[in-house]
Backbone:
């Protein structure tokens, strides 16, 4: 088989998964077609199984690429276009991005337990078990708007009720009456995707949102497909390197 024929076949196979063909992929098809073929096979697994609709797959890939722990502009553009082509509305895409934007709060949910450990080491008394009336009201508001309560929120609520109230408002926007374009299961799958992604790996949140997704009807096959989609980001190591190789080659 000629190299040009092999490259054409690789292009056809990869674009059939919904992934756009780029100059970087074209370069990779020449540099190492075996690797690109293996990646195409990996990329094809969720595309062919379709435990999740293609629109949902693209929204999840968009959330992963847009997450603050990844921030891949090319991926955001590609998966925005692919989600629109799969039938997503602009409102659904914006809501996906809003859901992904809450990832910043993990600075608090990771930081607060560490703070509590240090305070305990220094002999400070623990926070009171009983909530104040204001704190109880905030807890009830969060539970009503977000549909769950996680124990990781307890010390945050006690230490900074003002922050917790503002975060409740911020994180609840996709759940209010004017939004809510995505169903509850899809929202939880978005949270699952960004928490399991290799650039984040936030296990406490992952368990919460997998549990919530199951509660809203997600199957084990659907959740497994979320993990499979999130795993695809590893190829970007090679794609970034191919661009660097091409740039360096121009100067020789």
Residues:
């Amino acid at each position: 088989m000629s190299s040009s024929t092999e490259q054409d076949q690789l292009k056809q196979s990869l674009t059939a998964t919904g992934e756009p063909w780029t100059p970087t992929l074209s370069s990779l098809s020449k540099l190492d077609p075996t690797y690109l073929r293996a990646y195409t096979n990996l990329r094809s697994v969720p595309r062919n199984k379709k435990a999740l609709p293609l629109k949902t797959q693209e929204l999840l890939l968009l959330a992963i690429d847009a997450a603050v722990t990844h921030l891949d502009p090319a991926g955001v553009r590609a998966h925005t276009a692919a989600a629109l082509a799969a039938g997503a509305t602009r409102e659904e895409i914006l809501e996906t991005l809003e859901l992904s934007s809450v990832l910043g709060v993990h600075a608090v949910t990771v930081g607060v337990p560490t703070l509590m450990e240090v305070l305990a080491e220094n002999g400070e008394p623990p926070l009171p078990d009983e909530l104040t009336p204001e704190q109880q009201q905030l807890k009830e508001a969060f539970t009503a708007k977000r549909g769950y309560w996680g124990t990781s929120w307890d010390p945050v609520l006690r230490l900074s009720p003002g922050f917790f109230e503002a975060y409740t408002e911020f994180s609840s926007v996709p759940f209010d009456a004017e939004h809510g374009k995505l169903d509850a299961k899809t929202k939880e799958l978005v949270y699952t995707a960004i928490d399991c992604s290799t650039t984040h790996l936030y296990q406490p949140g992952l368990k919460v949102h997998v549990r919530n997704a199951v509660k809203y009807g997600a199957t084990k096959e659907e959740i497994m497909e979320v993990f499979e989609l999130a795993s695809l980001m590893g190829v970007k190591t090679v794609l970034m390197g191919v661009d660097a190789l091409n740039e360096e080659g121009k100067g020789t």
The domain at 3-9+24-250 is CATH 1.20.1290.10 (AhpD-like). The mean pLDDT is 94.
